[in-house]
Amino acid sequence: MGVESVVERIEQALRGVIDPELGADIVDLGMVKRVDVDDGVATIGVALTIAACPLRDQIEQDVKRKVLALPEISDVLVEVSAMTVDEKADIMSKARWKAREDAEPTMIHPSTRVIAISSGKGGVGKSSTSVNLAVALAKQNFRVGLLDADIWGFSVPRMLGIGDARLEANENAQIVPVEAHGVSVVSTGLLIDDEDKALMWRGLMLSKALEQFLTDVAWDTLDYLVIDMPPGTGDIQMALSRLLPQAEMVVVTTPQRAAQKVASRVADMARRSFMPVIGVLENMSGFTTEDGRHYKLFGEGGGQELADGLGIPLIGQVPLDPFIVEAGDDGVPLVISHPDSPAAAALMNVAKRMTELIPPAEDETCTARIDRLIEGLQRIDS
Asked: I need a surface site. Which of 26, 189, 316, 345 has the fewest CB within 10 A?
């Protein structure tokens, strides 16, 4: 592949980096000033409105993750500069135009960190992982939403103890999420009257359902939106990368090699869609009896092998725990019902690791800093 085509792919990937304040991607805003590639190392020049902008670290890390998702790139260097007065005027003009002519397609704020919990196949504990990670993030005082995008195989409502709840609309005809354990929740399971009834929907209906959950739901401003994805590489996965370009993925696998090989396919799909895979979570990593004997019921090493193959970190290994099943049936997530259990401790650590890899957007924005500076100057003048 020629250098020119690699540069084009990098620019396409950078369209997934959203300036949280301006609500548009950094390519359309003209913030990308140069893209060079030399022997697999990409150098990206990014101009910010203020070089010391509090959002600088977030934008730099987003650029690196998006570009490193390309198989042709081994390393990324980000060179940050400050815009000139004319460039600032131009970018604000573009931002105003986009706000008017190209309204934000979803109700998810651009500053929201979107984490898609995915797996190559079913039966690896993806949904219970999604539920517990969302609640674990909420326990860290983050504002968290949980979207059950496993349209056919919804199980989130039961796991959160809200199986009898139903989604309702507000005065603006927007769907209002159901609150559970500090998390705002939306699921098809909260729309139907009988959870035993099969949803016989085809691909177009599935992607439309996801689109409605993102465009017609009155999501509050969230720090994190956790999405419980359906297994595999189908319509939902492709729709997500189109609707939420800031989405990033965590791949859940079990230790055995067969599961690891299947999980690598969903990671490949993510990267083809310019969605960074931030880490691998190995679930069902052995079982320890009360007398201390440890059994590797599903083999070992699959999670680490997958992470090494993808060049990303193994962010956690969650052991088998009978309390997980009990907690799911009772509707009280493990991190709340049995917080001292080994599995709950592992899940809390994974949630903390995710906030390190994808830190929440800064509360203090560049615009707020400028406003305070202007207010200070006005007080001096008066």
From this structure: 345
